[in-house]
Specification:
31% helix; single chain; Formiminotransferase-cyclodeaminase, Chain B, domain 1; Alpha-Beta Plaits; 2 domains; alpha+beta; 8 helices
C-alpha cells in the first residue's frame, strides 16, 4: 500500500474540488480524506492503493485539475506553482521507498508527455540535489515559472520547457511521512506569527525537521503558524504545539486552535488528545491508521 497526498491550488470552488476528488475515486483508489481550506485557497486529497491504482488515480487527478483550475485567476497565501502543486507518494505497510520513486517517475512522465505540464521530481525521486527540496523548486511561484524554466538548471524532468498556460508546473516525488500542522493565534498581527515561525523552523536553528511560515487568515482577522513536520521522530505534533504555545505566551498571545491538514500517522500524536492540542476536530478522526481501517 502506498499513500498519495496531492495538494490542489483551489479552496473556494467546492464543485471543482469535489469533481477532482470524484475522478480519483472513479479510478479505483481508496479515498481517505478531502481537506478544503478557503483561507489558504488550497485543498489536500488523501488516497491509498497499490502502484497500478495510484498511477491511474494520480493521472486522473492531474487531468481533472488542469481542466478545472486556472492559476491565472488564483490568489492565496500559500506558496504554489501549479494547479496540482505537488503530488507526493509515501510508502505504507509492506511497500518500499523504491516503489514510490518508481511510481513518481512513471506519473511524472505521463503528466509531462500527455498533459503538457512541466514536471519536477523532488525528495527521494529527485534527479539532482538541487531538486530535493520542494521549497527550492517552488520558489518564484506560478508567476516566476517562465523565467525559471528558461534557465538550464531548471529544465523540467518531464514535459515542455514552458509553463502550462493555466496549470503551471507540478512537483512529483516520493517521501516519508510529513505532517501539515497549523496553529491559529489570537491576534491579527502577522509579524507575531512570522517571528514564532522563524524561532521554531529547523533552518533557523529551531526544532529538527520543522518548516514553518507565518500566514494571515484574512477571513477571520487572525494569523497562524503553518508548519510541515518532516521528521516526526525528531519533532512530533505535541512537541511542535508546545513550542508554539511557549513562544506565543512570551509574545503575550494565546492560541485559538490548531489544525491537522489531511491525516496524521499515529506515531506523530502519541499521548496527545484533542483538548491538549486545542484541535479543531476529533484527533482520532484524523489518524491515518484509523481511516484506513474504516475503509
Amino acid at each position: 500500500m502506498i499513500e498519495c497526498v496531492p495538494n490542489l491550488s483551489e479552496g473556494t470552488d467546492r464543485a471543482a474540488i469535489e469533481g477532482i476528488a470524484d475522478a480519483v475515486a472513479a479510478s479505483g483508489c481508496h479515498m481517505l480524506d478531502l481537506h478544503i481550506d478557503a483561507d489558504h485557497n488550497r485543498s489536500v486529497v488523501t488516497f491509498v492503493g497499490d502502484e497500478d491504482s495510484l498511477y491511474g488515480g494520480a493521472i486522473a487527478l492531474a487531468r481533472e485539475a488542469a481542466a478545472r483550475i486556472d492559476l491565472r485567476e488564483h490568489r492565496g497565501v500559500h506558496p504554489r506553482m501549479g494547479a496540482v502543486d505537488v503530488i507526493p507518494f509515501v510508502p505504507l505497510s509492506n511497500s518500499t521507498m523504491s516503489a514510490s520513486i518508481r511510481l513518481a517517475r512513471k506519473v511524472g512522465s505521463t503528466i509531462g508527455e500527455d498533459l503538457g505540464i512541466p514536471v519536477f521530481l523532488y525528495e527521494a525521486a529527485a534527479t539532482c540535489e538541487l531538486r530535493r527540496n520542494l521549497a527550492t523548486i517552488r520558489k518564484g511561484g506560478f508567476e516566476g515559472l517562465g523565467e525559471k524554466l528558461a534557465r538550464d538548471e531548471w529544465t523540467p524532468d518531464f514535459g515542455p520547457r514552458a509553463p502550462h498556460r493555466t496549470a503551471g508546473a507540478v512537483a512529483v516525488g516520493a517521501r516519508d511521512f510529513l505532517v501539515a500542522f497549523n496553529v491559529v493565534l489570537a491576534t491579527g498581527e502577522l509579524s507575531v506569527a512570522r517571528r514564532i515561525a522563524a524561532s521554531i523552523r529547523a533552518a533557523d536553528g529551531g526544532l529538527a525537521g520543522v518548516k514553518a511560515l507565518g500566514l494571515p487568515l484574512a477571513g477571520r482577522g487572525l494569523v497562524q503558524v503553518s508548519m510541515n513536520l518532516t521528521d516526526i521522530e525528531a519533532t512530533d505534533v505535541p512537541r511542535a504545539y508546545a513550542r508554539v504555545e511557549r513562544e506565543a505566551a512570551s509574545a503575550g498571545v494565546s492560541i485559538v486552535e490548531s489544525e491537522i491538514v489531511g491525516l496524521v500517522p499515529r506515531a506523530a500524536v502519541l499521548e496527545a488528545t484533542t483538548s491538549s492540542l486545542r484541535l479543531d476536530r476529533d484527533l482520532e478522526s484524523v489518524v491515518l491508521e484509523n481511516r484506513i481501517a474504516s475503509r
